[in-house]
What does this fold into?
Amino acid sequence: MGEEQGEGQRDERDWEIARILESNEEAVLVAGFLHSSGIPAQVESLHVEELPVNLGGLGEVRVLVPADRLEEARALLDASEAAAGDAGDVAESGKEEPAE
It folds into this structure.
């Protein structure tokens, strides 16, 4: 019988960094987006909430995915960011660009 995987514990797969972010909140949103897309994701935080400044690498928050799903996760995140950027352009201009 296998052991139950506890909260915050990784399974036996190799995990890779899909994104490095600056806040726990943003990382949780990204991990949730990946989960909703069928990709397992976990948040690994080095961020110290009590400090008023970001300490570079000591303050980063990582979103990890299984190594065999890394390219898929990065492509999905890139596409999502591109779509969000396009939506931001429309919101700033107040109207959509005409289709060609």
Remarks:
- The domain at 15-88 is CATH 3.30.70 (Alpha-Beta Plaits).
- Confidence is low (pLDDT under 50) at residues 1-7.
- The two ends are 59 Å apart (CA to CA).
